[in-house]
Specification:
- This protein is α/β, with parallel strands linked by helices.
- 49% of the residues lie in helices and 11% in strands.
- It has 22 helices and eight strands.
- It has an eight-stranded mixed barrel, surrounded by five helices.
- Helix 10 runs antiparallel to helix 11, helix 15 crosses helix 20 and helix 16 packs parallel to helix 19.
- The longest helix has 17 residues.
């Protein structure tokens, strides 16, 4: 029996965020397993089969020259976008493969430093670029005024979104090294102000990753509140008398709303019998009327801060993945426990207090507490795998697979299924 390409690769992912701070797509890291040669044509067929019309766009990010060359050589028109590292483009063989791939209609993304974008001759081969800034460059740009930067970029570009258009009116040596380019994608931004500048004033196609630390620091003096969008969505679902499963799904999209819900359902004032240790149990015991009144109390003060949307969404993605990575055959109830492990594993970042302190306020099972706080117990492996898949470093993921005798193909297929079922916002 032929081996699947998913046994020959270690995958990882990173979300791409749009101007609304919502999911624009995903960057999929491709690491070839030692001693193997990945069949990239098979990979492309798998992606074509499982990716739906509502799935988020994919940027394939090969982590070796060989995988890149195979993709450039075989990818047909309509394939996911393919990243080409700027330093690899200096290889004459890769340079020629890029040219041919462009001629076939393959969408290519140049990746490299802002100060070293490709020359005008090669620039027209790329539909966009994924740019990063040197630390001194990031500081310089962040300190400049947004209107002035916008005027500079518009003078250099006739149309946003195409790298060749950005370079059309100015040769490479004429571009100031610290000038942001209109319509491109950016990565490695540690400053929230810089991310806002890229998205709001330079119409960045996407931001890869998010300046989590800076976004949380900006909110340090404010109480952690649930998302306004999630509260409103759940209120509408209750009004429409949707299913209990729908309520649970919407409620579980926001870590703060879920946490507050468990605090509320276990409060002495409410007087429910027994400990409420899951969202489903709380919904069953609370009833539609009480739930709607509680949500109405949450709505006026709910959070509308856009910089927190990527953080909440990333927590939900981790929870989705952890739930799927638990061993096959477990009950739905146990899967939802694992979901809470992933959802609450970074709750301390939003609440600004130790995770153990926060989780001791609600009667979670020991399995959930141990996995989220001490990374021990039967659910710890699923959480650690989900965390490892969020990185471009394959070493921790390979170590986890080896320690727990996990099948490489199963892990990769689980990741792809989860990503394909997301929806681009």
């Amino acid at each position: 029996m032929a081996q699947s390409v998913l046994s020959s690769l270690t995958l990882g992912y990173r979300p791409l965020w749009n101007r609304d701070r919502r999911l624009a797509g995903v960057q999929l890291y491709l690491h070839e397993e030692p001693g193997t040669t990945a069949d990239v044509q098979h990979l492309l067929r798998i992606l074509q089969e499982i990716w739906g019309t509502q799935s988020p766009p994919v940027l394939l990010s090969p982590q070796s020259r060989q995988v890149l060359c195979n993709l450039l050589d075989h990818a047909p028109q309509g394939s996911p976008w393919i990243e080409v590292r700027g330093d690899w483009l200096q290889d004459s063989g890769i340079y020629e493969l890029v040219r041919r791939a462009h001629e076939r209609g393959v969408m290519l993304v140049w990746r490299g430093p802002l100060s070293d974008v490709p020359d005008a001759q090669a620039a027209h081969w790329f539909a966009s670029s994924l740019l990063y800034l040197p630390p001194e460059g990031a500081s310089g740009i962040a300190n400049q005024s947004a209107p002035a930067q916008q005027q500079q970029a518009q003078a250099a570009a006739e149309t946003p979104g195409k790298l060749q258009q950005v370079l059309k009116t100015a040769p490479r040596h004429a571009l100031p090294p610290l000038q942001l380019l209109e319509g491109q994608m950016y990565e490695g931004l540690e400053s929230l102000a810089l991310a806002d500048l890229c998205l709001d004033h330079f119409h960045a196609g996407a931001i890869a990753g998010w300046p989590v630390a800076d976004a949380l620091y900006a909110q340090r003096n404010y109480q952690a509140l649930p998302s306004h969008d999630t509260v409103l969505a759940l209120m509408r679902a209750v009004d429409a008398e949707q299913s209990l499963e729908a309520f649970e799904q919407i409620l579980g999209e926001d870590p703060i709303l879920s946490y507050r819900f468990l605090l509320y359902t276990n409060s002495a004032a409410l007087g429910l019998r027994g400990n409420v240790d899951s969202l489903r149990r709380g919904l069953v015991m609370l009833g539609y009327g009480t739930l709607q009144r509680w949500l109405s109390d949450q709505l006026p003060h709910a959070c509308t801060e856009p910089s927190l949307i990527p953080i909440r969404t990333s927590m939900r993605l981790r929870a989705n993945l952890a739930e799927r990575l638990i061993e096959a055959g477990v009950s739905h109830e146990l899967q939802r426990e694992v979901y809470l492990v992933g959802l609450f594993s970074q709750l301390d970042l939003l609440l600004g207090e130790p995770l153990a302190t926060a989780l001791r306020r609600i009667p979670l099972s020991e399995r959930v507490f141990d996995a989220a706080v001490t990374r021990t117990g039967p659910y710890a492996n699923a959480l650690q795998l989900a965390i490892a898949l969020e990185s471009d470093d394959p070493a921790p993921l390979r170590q986890l697979r080896e320690e727990h005798a996990l099948d490489t193909e199963d892990v990769n297929r689980t990741l792809l299924r989860m990503l394909s079922e997301l929806k681009k916002d």
